[in-house]
Amino acid sequence: MLDMQQVKQRIEKLKKLPGIAPKPIPQLLEENGFSRRDFLKWSASLAATLGLPASFAPVVAEAAEVSDRLPVVWLHLAECTGCSESLLRTDAPTIDNLIFKYINLQYHDTIMAAAGWQAEENYEEALKEFKGRYVLCVEGGVPTKDGGEYLTIGPYAETGLHKLKRSAKDAAAIIAVGTCSSFGGIQAAAPNPTGAVGIHKVLDKQVINVPGCPPSDRNIVGTIVYVILYGQLPAVDNFNRPKWAYGLRIHDLCERRGHFDAGEFVEEFGSEEAMNGFCLYKKGCKGPYTFNNCSRERFNQHTSWPIQAGHGCIGCSEPDFWDAMAPYEEPLANHKFESIEADATADKVGITILTVAGVAIAAHAAISAIKKPKE
Amino acid sequence: MKFLKVLGEYIGGIEFSAGYRWQHWIRAISIFVLIATGFYLANPYITYGAPSPTPTRFLHAEFREWHIIFGFALIGAVLYKTIYFFFFPEAKYERASIKDAFNIKLLFQQIGYYLLISKHPKTTGVYNPLQFWAYTLAYVLFYGIIITGLALYAEVYHQGLGGALYPFAKSVESFLGGLAYVRLWHHILMWAIIIFVVVHVYMAVYNAVFGKNGGMDAIFSGMKWEKEEH
Ligand code: SF4
Ligand code: SF4
User: What is the ipTM for the molecules in this complex?
Assistant: First the structure.
């Protein structure tokens, strides 16, 4: 990690570059009803989320102010736009999504004003003008089968695969937003007919994964701010996820953990135990296998999160989670394996083999008793 | 006693040393405790209906504690046995089984014995080829379950041993494709061990019944008896 001095130098350098926001960010925030005080509070909380000491709060604020110097290009591949929704849909604009709005170039399928040829032109221009400077955010997995033809975008039917590679070439940093772009997501679930994969599989540059289905707005903006702040990628875990967000399991910080250790489990949704806030492990909670910070950050302006609302975690920020974590409302021990007798659990297969072995043993013993083995 | 009389000439000797026998029984007990507690951890079969008036219940934590204690006992036993096999002088006759194990004729003869069509082969080492390969497989299973178990352990206990093992745990996790898969493999390996144990116990009893040389006693007393060939 860089020290404060280097971060400051970097911010000075960024300040000299032209910004893409219509006005300086602090002014825009003020026009949208956020006081300086709100902004500083926001910076302090973001610094804390990123695992930085409190002394970093003012630098985080400064970084946010110059965040429009490193514009974001947003590429949509095979996805459902849920990640964009997570970022943009709140009952009132937050500082996170305002900043995102102003650092975002005029190419984001969901929010851009332009359409058709004009939109395409904006994109090409952005790639040229901000060459080597833009942060490429990719939402969605990339189909690779048959040359990637299961996903084509725009008037020339360019494949997603091609567009991704081309856009990644001159990016200052590449962020995979959401589980689909990180690990392939739902379109990569078995049998994966389009050969969809996470974008890191087809790029030779480092990709930082911000998985989740969707990831929280905090994790998306936090990662972008981190890149701006340090000019380098944050420390990541074994699946290239920023450690500040994905360093611990859901289970490690879950508010129901006390009930877990106590052996107090919900057996039925809507039951007495559910009302008592018991642990959801037996109703399929995958928090013990899932690295994410939902239990700390929550969703919708920190209002709530799945486990608080009474449903287990489905492990959405883990690789291959559509297959690995199924069935979602049963413990992992009930995982279904493909077998002759469709969808058997490990226990079922085990008991079957054991029964067969038992019968074989009994038969062998009986035959041996009659026709003795040779001495 | 009346029914005791001289029955041919027997030669005897220590087949299994005390350390060997201890590790065997520690391992055996551990396996049973680990299976019972493991099934609970996978899908808790005892739960409470009402919350505790005071937060002093730790049922799941206790199951986990025993699972971990016996898990480490198993690790100790398996490690001891591995080192014993390769380096201890008294394991010389065990190591001699390696040569037998690659003797295809011997292997078929052993299979033939269990199919009741050929005689029990004479081996130079303590294990017959079939037994040797079955045990080798058992050790693959043991190391598999130990590695996945330690990976799961390190993810819960971030300090001390867990902390030291953390980078290793992470590489296991990446290799298997996520912590959920680590857990699934841990469970599958348990089933493989259960099946091994059942077959193993049957084979031991079978040989005791038909071998008529107190074969099963060796794992208790260490002594092996064989009729002397004249
Ligand atoms: S609800 Fe899920 S994450 Fe929370 S303690 Fe239970 S198993 Fe862990
Ligand atoms: S609680 Fe689990 S399933 Fe839900 S958003 Fe968080 S990581 Fe994904």
Answer: 0.87
Tell which of A285, A347, A352 to mutate to test the B interface (max B CBs under 10 Å). Answer: A347
We find that the CATH architecture of domain A248-371 is Irregular (4.10)
| CA–CA gap between residue B70 and residue A204 (Å, rounded) | 45
C-alpha R_g of chain B: 22
Section B86-115 average pLDDT: 89
A291 lines ligand 2 (CB under 6 A): no
Q: Is the pLDDT of residue B31 over 60?
A: yes
The protein residue with its alpha carbon nearest to ligand 2, atom 6, reads A294
- Put simply, the chain A residues between 320 and 359 with a CB less than 8 A from any chain B CB are 320-321, 324-325, 331-335, 346-347, 349-350, 353-354, 357-358
pLDDT tens-digit readout, A332-353 = 988 888 766 667 888 888 888 8
CATH topology of domain B2-227: Fumarate Reductase Cytochrome B subunit (1.20.950)
For the domain covering A20-245, report its CATH number.
3.40.50.700
Q: Is the pTM of this model over 0.80?
A: yes
Residue pair A353/A362 in contact (Cβ under 8 Å)? The answer is no
Locate CATH 4.10.480.10 in chain A: 248-371
SS3 call for A72: strand
Partner B, chain A 132-191, Cβ-Cβ below 8 Å: none
Q: Where are the alpha helices (DSSP H) in chain B?
A: 18-42, 59-87, 92-101, 104-114, 129-156, 161-176, 179-211, 218-221
Q: What pLDDT does A133 receive?
A: 86
Atom index in ligand 1 nearest the CA of residue A250 equals 3
Domain ranges of chain B: 2-227
